[in-house]
Specification:
Largest sheet of chain A: 5 strands, parallel
CATH architecture of the largest domain in chain A: 3-Layer(aba) Sandwich
CATH superfamily of one domain in chain B: Trimethylamine methyltransferase-like
CATH topology of one domain in chain B: TIM Barrel
CATH topology of the largest domain in chain A: Rossmann fold
Structural class of chain A: alpha/beta
Shape of chain A: elongated
Distance between the termini of chain B: 48 Å
Mean pLDDT of chain B: 95
Strand content of chain B: 5-15%
Number of helices of chain B: 17
Largest interface: A-B, 20 and 26 residues
Low-confidence stretches of chain A: none
Distance between the termini of chain A: 41 Å
Oligomer: heterodimer
Largest sheet of chain B: 5 strands, parallel
Low-confidence stretches of chain B: none
Strand order of the largest sheet of chain A: 2-1-3-4-5
Strand content of chain A: 5-15%
CATH class of one domain in chain B: Alpha Beta
Helix content of chain B: 40-55%
Helix content of chain A: 55-70%
CATH superfamily of the largest domain in chain A: Cobalamin-binding domain
Number of domains of chain A: 2
Number of strands of chain A: 5
Mean pLDDT of chain A: 88
CATH class of the largest domain in chain A: Alpha Beta
Number of helices of chain A: 9
Strand order of the largest sheet of chain B: 9-10-11-13-14
Structural class of chain B: alpha/beta
Shape of chain B: globular
Chain lengths: ~220, ~500
């Protein structure tokens, strides 16, 4: 009963974007020796899902979305170390290396996507902006990533997304990674044209896209 | 005769203008700007700015900014390709040009967006050359049938090939500037002539907040040294890359513009620079940048007011729409923007033809927008007193039922007082039905075709054409394109 009540409070803290409260509840859960995986699944995940729904319905705007995902990340940061030591098998949902391609120093869109992915339980390696194409591969190889996400805000730099896929092919690594692309000038046609595995037009859609892509690969 | 009043709109009190400028100066001094370019950092360091090299961060003092502001010309002259017709940037002069660098075109047949090709760019450039209310050309489409590495210089090549109008353009890569400069020089005959008679405006976009990338900083330096105006395209997005309040965004906007102006003046004292931008009211639902939002236009108008207060030529992205089709929303947003820009006295107004934020161009919309621009320009001509007395003489001459239609006074003045736009439907209902019940988009489509078919391309003299072709061909070869796409299919 006590547990259900805490889960409901966690849920509400995420919906409200109340980082302080989300963190306090995560600490309380650990003190009460609750199972961290259950806490994440039943306490926090329904909260961020609800936030996604509210955003899709047009009730929540980006500031709410971001504040909630920040609260979610803060709670996860407290629970995850425990999770790893206690229950390795649950693990993370997938590893994603993300960044804005070289020549482009815009990172707002990429930050929103990285934040939502992290909040949804993915392990995200954010390389920042103006990232050399080689660096995406180096990082992905280093951490054993599943997905590489490339952002570009300029018409002048979106070509970097194509070059990256060419580079993967050249290094015979194309089959090793799923590549997703995004950014203001990017659309699904472009993603198809350059042979990317996916495109999403916003951060919530990016979470669905990543979930879908990973589910498909696992089925294969 | 009493001269017309120039209708003018302003949104900020002088007190607020000053407050915004002061805080922008404070921002530059305390927080500084990120400059990713070695040469710019050196220039700034030599001029006494505090430079933190390891962070590529520069802190500009009040006195350095003011010294550079004093050097920047208040009025800039642009000249057409022939070097004859000149255009003033400054005062309350208003010049419209197509919104630049769209990556899509709205297909006339399918009404869907698609990647533009050379033939689309040729049509758009030729159409712009023919439209009377667009004073400048712009490299408005990024063609997909040439290597991306030459897409910037190639656009300029096509513009100089098919149009006399001065060109608003910009670089996508540092290396391209030289090629573009070579083409401009080929048109003018010498670097000296190019310096004396600027032909192109180079857009340079700082990345908000307060960052100059290597490419854009280099463009400022390169353009300054060959006397071509740099247009500073600051683009804060409220609540995303700049403060959500309009005044907060204006402070950042002014700081970004002033830092760009300093780089230009240090590279070449007295070089022309245009205070401008493409700020937007960021849509916090969809994460988009609506250019047709009234708040976007309010930021633009206020920005121009500040630019005018600083004594600089001004620019804005106005007279465009976020609609994905040429529809009612497109007309509403474009007309609001064009009218307000004209009323604000913005010198370079980029936008006509554009849809879907700044991503798409449409030939039909461009033609319709030319009429919108014509209406806006008519409005700012104001109301002139043409004669003395103004009406009494009709009645003195002809009694209480004067024949206005037949009076020479009507013939003398009607075209001065009233403008006629063929694309706008002002027919009776019956004759509209008789003409096939066409809406404005259908009429525009036919008119675009008719205009392009009934005029011959506006080429420069043969020797210049050959020189341009030589420069572009050799650049294209460097990137693996053996021959340039044909420019003949010009509609």
């Amino acid at each position: 009963m006590e547990k259900e009540k805490i889960f409901a409070q966690m849920n509400q803290a995420i919906i409200d974007g109340n980082e302080e409260e989300a963190v306090r509840l995560a600490r309380q859960a650990l003190e009460l020796k609750l199972d961290p995986s259950e806490v994440i699944e039943k306490g926090y995940v329904p909260g961020i899902q609800k936030v996604g729904e509210l955003w899709e319905k047009g009730e929540y705007f980006l500031p709410e979305l971001i504040t909630s995902s920040e609260a979610m990340k803060a709670a996860l940061a407290i629970l995850e170390p425990e999770l790893k030591s206690r229950e390795k098998s649950l693990g993370v949902k997938g590893k994603i290396v993300i960044g804005t391609v070289e020549g482009d120093i815009h990172d707002i869109g990429k930050n929103i996507v990285a934040s939502m992915l992290q909040a949804s339980g993915f392990e995200v390696y954010d390389l920042g902006a103006d990232v050399k194409l080689e660096k995406f591969i180096d990082k992905a190889e280093e951490v054993g990533a599943d997905i590489i996400g490339l952002s570009a805000l300029l018409t002048t730099t979106m070509i970097g997304q194509k070059k990256f896929i060419d580079l993967l092919i050249q290094r015979q690594l194309r089959d090793r990674y799923l590549v997703i692309v995004g950014g203001a000038p990017v659309n699904s046609d472009w993603a198809t044209k350059i042979g990317a595995d996916g495109y999403a037009e916003n951060a919530v859609a990016a979470v669905y896209l990543v979930q879908e892509l990973l589910a498909k690969t696992k089925r294969r | 005769m009493i001269a017309p009043v120039r209708p003018k709109i302003s949104l900020l009190s002088r007190e607020l203008v000053q407050k915004i400028i002061d805080e922008a100066l404070l921002l530059l001094e305390k927080i500084g700007v990120f400059v990713e370019n070695e040469e710019a950092l050196s220039l700034l360091g030599e001029a006494g700015a505090k430079v933190k090299r390891e962070y590529q961060r520069v802190y500009l003092t009040d006195s350095l900014v003011k010294m550079c502001l004093d050097k920047a010309p208040k009025i800039v002259h642009l000249y057409d390709r022939e070097g004859q017709k000149s255009f003033i940037l400054g005062k309350d002069e208003v010049h419209f040009n197509p919104g630049s660098a769209a990556i899509s075109i709205l297909d006339s047949e399918t009404h869907s967006l698609r990647s533009p090709e050379t033939s689309d760019l040729v049509k758009l450039i030729r159409l712009t050359d023919l439209l009377p209310h667009l004073d400048f050309q712009s490299t408005a489409l990024v063609p997909s049938d040439v290597p991306q590495e030459i897409a910037d210089s190639y656009r300029l090549y096509v513009a100089l090939h098919f149009s006399s109008k001065p060109v608003v353009t910009g670089t996508f890569r540092v290396e391209s500037f030289k090629v573009m400069k070579d083409m401009l020089t080929a048109v003018r005959g010498s670097e000296n002539e190019l310096m004396k008679k600027p032909l192109a405006i180079f857009d340079a976009c700082p990345s908000p907040p307060l960052k100059w990338s290597n490419l854009t900083a280099q463009s400022l330096i390169d353009a300054a040294r060959c006397g071509q105006p740099s247009e500073l395209i600051s683009m804060g997005m409220t609540g995303a890359t700049s403060p959500v309040t309009i005044t907060g965004t204006l402070v950042q906007h002014v700081a970004e513009n002033l830092s760009g102006l300093v780089i230009v003046q240090l590279a070449q004292p007295g070089a022309p620079v245009i205070f401008g931008g493409s700020p937007s009211s960021f849509d916090l639902r969809f994460g988009t940048t609506p250019m047709g939002a009234m708040e976007t236009m309010m930021i633009d108008i206020a920005s121009a007011q500040i630019g005018q207060e600083l004594g600089l030529p001004t620019h804005a992205y106005m007279g465009l729409s976020d609609s994905k089709l040429v529809d009612c929303q497109a007309g509403l947003e474009t007309a609001s923007g064009a009218l307000l820009a004209a009323l604000a006295g913005i010198n370079v107004v980029s936008g006509p033809g554009m849809l879907a934020f700044e991503s798409a161009q449409s030939l039909e919309k461009l033609l319709i927008d030319d009429a919108i621009c014509g209406q806006a320009l008519r409005l700012i001509e104001g109301i002139a007193q043409r004669d003395e007395p103004m009406a009494l003489f009709f009645f003195e001459e002809q009694g209480e039922w004067p024949n206005f239609l037949a009076h020479p006074h009507t013939r003398k003045w009607y075209r001065h007082e009233h403008k006629y736009f063929a694309i706008l439907d002002r027919k009776t209902y019956d004759s509209w039905v008789a003409d096939g019940r066409k809406d404005i988009v259908q009429r525009a489509k036919e008119e675009v075709k008719r205009l392009l078919a009934s005029s011959s391309p506006n080429f420069p003299p043969r020797d210049i054409l050959n020189e341009l072709k030589k420069i572009m061909t050799s650049e294209a070869k460097r990137y693996g394109l053996e021959s340039l796409p044909s420019l003949n299919e010009s509609g």
